[in-house]
Amino acid sequence: MNADSLSITCPILSVDDKECVTIAHGEGARLTRELIQRRILPLFSNDALASFGDAARLPSVSGQLAFASDGFVVSPLFFPGGDIGKLAVYGTTNDLAVAGARPLWLSLSLIIEEGLPFATLDRVLQSVAQAAKTVGVQVVTGDTKVVPRGAADGLFITTSGIGHYQDEQRYDCRDIRPGDALIVTGTIACHGMAVMAARENLGVVAEIESDCGSLLPAVTALSHAGIPVRAMRDATRGGVAAVLHEWSLACGHTLTVDENKIPVNHVVRGLCEILGLDPLFVANEGTMLVAVPDEFACRAVEALRQTAVSANAVCFGRVSQRKIAPVTVIRSLGREIPLDEPSGAFLPRIC
Amino acid sequence: MKYVDEYRDPQLAATLVAKIRNVATRRWTLMEVCGGQTHGLLRHGIDEALEDVVEMLHGPGCPVCVTPIESIEKAIELSRQPQTILASFGDMLRVPGATGSLLKAKSQGADVRVVYSPLDAVEIAKNNPNARVVFFAVGFETTAPATGLAVLQAQRLGLENFSLLSAHVRVEPAMQSIAQSPECRVQGFLAAGHVCTVMGYDCYQEFSRKYRLPVVVTGFEPIDLLSGIYECVRQLENGQCDVANEYARSVRSEGNVNAQSIIEQVFKIADRPWRGLGVIPQGGLVLRGEFKQFDADSRFPKSSAQFAEPPECLSGEVMTGRIRPPQCPQFGLACTPQNPLGAPMVSSEGACAAYYAYQSRPRIAEVGAEP
Amino acid sequence: MCLAIPGQVVRWIEREQPFCEADIQFLGIRRKCNMSCVPDAQEGDYVIVHAGVAISKVDTAAAEQLLQEISSSEIWDELNGNAS
Q: ipTM of this model?
């Protein structure tokens, strides 16, 4: 059977098959191979991928490896400052980076809703390739599935990554101690609010760019400056509040941040005010929290500020012996108020 | 942000705290009416800062919390109809009815959309001519002009697919019902600044005289809240009970007459059940007869099902200031924001949720509030 | 209820009731808001917006006055006087 006879007999393959992904592209046959060979492989040329086997053969590495996986389901697929492709690379490589590992290899799995225009897919894939190049990570294996209309929202991506631990230092949030300083590497809440603003039903015109970016240079900067970092964590879902709660749970101390020192871009703040949202609970995609011994706080901030992704780093909090609440915020009047754990759906307050 | 940031100034706040402490010779019991004020008081720790001189009771001013279960059930039922888009404010989606919430209905496939403005729901109706768009309208007098405008726009645009499930309530009758209760402990009211922006405060003159209570129109930022509390305490110490306006940048005595005429044009006053409080005479707004075609209640038949509040939920006691949220035996145990028994634990402006978020654990040490 | 925040009128778009509309700026955010309740607001004025509808024009004099009154309070002198 050749492609021509297929296109005559198969009702799914109408004129759309030239412009859109169809169910047939996910059937594992010729169209699938064409999709992969024409649209995916040329973007990610490397030895492991070139063999086009079921598994990637990777060179051996001495020392310990880190392994992380993450799924991406953002809507809309494109938003100011990023897109699902960029997010899928930085999301997983950031998880490796904040664990102290240099990202080496990535897998890329696509779940495509039928009807997704090829133009959209190509844009996303180019973005994946660009981001992978920026981080210096190779996409070595992957998978493509097509699901019926309505079973996915355009495109879902899962990436898994393998990284190599760089040095002996291990970061562990259980090591956070009273007296430690808390640093945030940039203005917070940009990603969550950029995505929210991009959803047209809010009717707002806001120039907010997602912070979607690689944290690897920031981690490297800290390492080069010789900072004995206790823990690092990218503040994604649930925002800064979620990381603070996770850390407090792990180390058993109280983490306190100062509202007046939290870096928030004024446009982001405007949107948060309109919608009644607290920026501490809003997602980031290229901003992390760092806990360091107090005496290294200034040097850590200095080192971070030398790097573009963390140019706005500030020390904004402190760890103390466990008080009654695990996480507290010094609010604008100077009073220390407990900060609740993020929970439930993220909805504008409005009324 | 201009007209916001200046009103969060810690120095000025400290001055007001000092003034309140200086004028108070005893502890007074005040009620802030609006949920937004409750949120502000707890978020900034103002109630704690003044704990020994002022006891703050939290009023019923969260429209999401007082929306009856029947209305929520009706909204859920409508959202499950084919070709229907149900739009409402974000907070409303989480509130449990008897069979679940709008959020749950959405997860089961209903087209439920969060809007920032009722006018956005009109826009949805315009853009989806084949769908029936129902706006689940909750709110006080502050929101009524926006809902009224939505109806007027839909009428002007000839949108037959737009209707309103109205659960609009009026604040002043609820204050009456609290003030006239023999158990009422409130010695002074902080009136809701944005409700007064629309309705003015002339209407409180008679109320204040009748119940011999100071009524101070109060805004939402820390300086506004503290100014309102100061004025209230000052009056009480001087044996006065007047109506005062501490939110003058937004509120005029006569209110906003344009906004009032929109409300007047679209709605009429009616008795209305409040969740947790029972029927409040003249406590709500319903669409006037000439807008019947936009009234979801008359367009789509009401189910006769009756729903009861879980008996262990004391939200009525909380919203009338008889108890504070932590005094409810279910608070933080059987009732949490993840598993709420009643609406005040759900809405971010509900008193129970505000306590849970900012204060549920025993209070923590005060840090440098003094200048 | 009643989250409402101040924003600045940037540009009138539509003068006809009930569709009266202007672009309002809140920090770096712009949104079209209904102006039916504040038809006399001018470009540059601040209005208080709730649920997409401007419900009041900010009285700038009153806004200043409240802050002025508090900052000129002599309470600290009084307290210090009593203490000494």
A: 0.94
Q: How many Cβ atoms are within 10 Å of A110's Cβ, its own excluded?
A: 27
Give the nearest partner residue to A335 out of B139, B362, B369, using CB atoms: B369
Report the C-alpha gap between B221 and B219 in whole angstroms.
6
Instruction: Answer whether B1 sits within 8 Å of A273, measured CB to CB.
Output: yes
- Taking the Cβ of residue B358 and every Cβ of chain A, the question of whether any pair is shorter than 8 Å is answered with yes
- Say if CB B195 and CB B155 are below 8 A apart: no
Tens digit of each residue's pLDDT (9 = 90 or more) over C5-30: 999 999 999 999 999 999 999 988 99
The answer to whether the CB atoms of B153 and C18 lie below 8 A apart is yes
Closest CA to B130 of B111, B156, B150, B153: B111
What Å distances lie between residue B53 and A107, A194, B47, B205, B230, CA to CA? 63, 44, 10, 26, 11
Considering only CB atoms, which chain A residues are within 8 Å of B14?
333
Note the Cα C36 to chain centre separation in Å.
16
Q: Would you state the structure tokens that stand for residue C67, as one six-digit string?
A: 């802050």
Nearest to C52 among B11, B117, B195 (CB): B117
Print the SS3 string covering chain C: CCCEEEEEEEEEEECCCCCCEEEEEECCEEEEEECCCCCCCCCCCEEEEECCEEEEECCHHHHHHHHHHHHCCCHHHHHHHHHC
| Residues A153-187 pLDDT 10s | 999 999 999 999 987 778 899 999 999 999 999 99
Tally Cβ neighbours within 10 Å of residue C3: 25
Here the tokens at position C78 are 């009084």
Cα A216 from Cα B126, distance rounded (Å): 47
| Chain A: residue whose CA lies nearest to C3 | A351
